[in-house]
Each structure stands twice: as structure tokens, then as C-alpha cells.
Amino acid sequence: MILAEELGITQAVARNPARLTEITGKDPNAKHFAELKGGAGLRVIRLVGNYGEVYDRYFGRRGRIPIDRDGTPNELAKNGGAMISRPFR
Question: What distance separates the 2 farthest-apart alpha carbons in the chain?
Fold first, then answer.
């Protein structure tokens, strides 16, 4: 789920074959993610969303008690947080 957020694969993108093909065609890591375990990662993203979408749903802007991710360890590492995906092969 964290890797999907890093790659820009959201629930809407995972449900849109044309947009997904565009992303996987440009990024080999996205292609490997899409093909991982017969598409299991994409099925998860289609059902619940990436890490950021799930966080926002339960703790963020859309949650009952909003807890902002900005400037916290719950933000992606590339944005100054601690969330980073391990490499997939």
C-alpha cells in the first residue's frame, strides 16, 4: 500500500485500465507491482486504496478526529516522513 502511494497508484487509477497502463508503461517498478503475485497488490488497492487514502479515511481529513500527516512520521519518506516501502522483486 505504501509502494502504491509512492508510485502514484490510487484506488481510482487501479480501477482505470488506461491510466494504469500509462503508469506501468513508464515505470518498471509500477509494472512489477502490478504483476506481483498475479495482481494481488492491485486488488488490494482497488478495494481499499493506497496507504494515504486509507490514512485519510480513518485519521485524516475524512476521519472523525482529523490527524494531519504533514510533518509527521506517517508521511512518505520522500516528503520528510518515515513511511517507505521495502524493495519488491
Answer: 39
Distances 52 to 62, 78, 89 between C-alpha atoms, Å: 12, 13, 23
The HSE-up count of residue 56 (CA atoms within 13 Å, CB side) is 12
CB of 23 closer than 8 Å to CB of 42: no
How many Å apart are CA 34 and CA 39, to the nearest integer?
Answer: 5
Q: Give residue for cell 495482481.
A: 39
C-alpha cell recorded at residue 8: 502514484
pTM of the model: 0.86
37-60 pLDDT, tens digit per residue, is 888 999 999 999 999 999 998 888
Tell me, what DSSP letter sits at residue 64?
Answer: S
Phi, psi angle pair for 69, to nearest 5°? -85, -25
**Residue 82 to residues 2, 19, 29, 70, 77, Cα–Cα distance (Å):** 11, 28, 20, 11, 5
